[in-house]
Amino acid sequence: MAATCASLTIAAMNTSTLTSASRALPRIAVLATGGTIAGAAPDATNTSGYQAGVVGVGQLLAAVPSLASVANVQAEQVASVDSKDMALALWVTLAQRVNTLLDRDEIDGIVITHGTDTLEETAYLLHLTVKSDKPVVLTAAMRPSSALSADGPLNLLNAVTVAGKDEARGQGVLVAFNNRIHSARDVVKTSTYAVDAFHSPEIGALGWVQDGRVEFQRGVVRPHTNASPFAIGSVASAWPLVEIVGSYAGASRVAVDALVAAGVKGIVVAGTGNGSIHATVQTALAEAAAKGVAIVRSSRVGSGHVMRNGAASDDALGFITAGALNPYKARVLLMLALASGQATPVALQQVFDTY
Predict the structure, then answer these.
(1) Do domains 6-227 and 240-354 have the same CATH topology?
(2) CB under 8 Å to 47, separation ≥6 — which residues?
């Protein structure tokens, strides 16, 4: 993983050559982390056998010359990773860099280029830990930069366009992808190959962006960014260990017992249906909860929300329900909540009901 934060400035940012028109443009920082949007393959027809994160941010921006008419862009190469390998240490680096940049008067918003595999997790983490109402917009691509009809350049242009709009302020962290604008809390990856790979299945996108026009059709209701109490610590090793287990036909308790023995602080269950759990796994989880391990019920279904069962089950077992958060986002919130000192099922349930 490269995390050198090498920076460059697009020519429009040179104050000695700025025209009056360019001075009026929003000032956007583009932070590159790698991913398919920065991937390359041996030939233009190859959209699966590519290497992610090998194209630098300067080359990504050069492929979109119309950016100069949308914003004054400052760019940094924060990392060059395949997002399947996203790590807590890089989350720390990225979150701290975002907050540092947003604290500067000369920055109006931020765009982050990211791999699609873990984009929804990174976006939700930042949604809860960024401390500014300035726009932060993540974008990505399903096809590498070398592919025929690569989707990265237009997604990048649209993301910068959204980040420069006043309407995007106060909406928390956003994802601009395939002309749609999503809230970080709602968005999930729904396809392994389609360019229309990101959706907000429960309540839909926030709005859309096309040909320079941005329209929000609803706003974000739950607290985020400045209204969130969560913050990123200085070292990833301080984060509590939280893992995910699944429930399925014939599931055993081996994974739960192994995680408890390893000292895990929290477990998120990707349950069936309404977060239901195989009886064998539930017994193991109840024993873990009695030992102080936080247990969160989520669902593997892909949409909908997990309802709290109350005294009949969750209250008696000490479980927390994830609401509409999928297991991977529930893990992010549980880590942040535990790190902030929330420990009891009652307190943790309040966190999940709020954020």
Answers:
(1) yes
(2) 41, 142, 143, 144, 147, 193
Q: What is the per-residue pLDDT for 234?
A: 65
CATH match of 6-227 with 3.60.9.10: no
Q: What percent of the chain has pLDDT over 90?
A: 88
What are the backbone angles phi and psi of residue 183, rounded to the nearest 5°? Answer: -80, 140
Please indicate if the annotation marks 116 as binding a ligand. yes
pTM for the structure as a whole: 0.93
Which residues have a Cβ under 8 Å from the Cβ of 186 and sit 6 or more positions away? 200, 202, 203, 204, 324
Q: Is 190 annotated as a binding residue?
A: no
Q: Give tens-digit pLDDT for 126-180.
A: 999 999 999 999 999 999 999 999 999 999 999 999 999 999 999 999 999 999 9
Three-state SS across 134-186?
CCEEEECCCCCCCCCCCCHHHHHHHHHHHHCCHHHCCCCEEEEECCEEEECCC
83 is in an annotated binding site: yes
240-354 to CATH, choices 3.40.50.40, 3.20.20.10, 3.50.50.60, 2.60.40.650? 3.40.50.40
- Taking the alpha carbons at both ends of the chain, their separation in whole angstroms is 31
Q: Where are the domains of the chain?
A: 6-227, 240-354
Q: Which residues are marked as active site?
A: 36, 116
Q: Residue 144 and residue 35: Cα distance in Å, rounded?
A: 9
Beta bridge partners of 139: 113
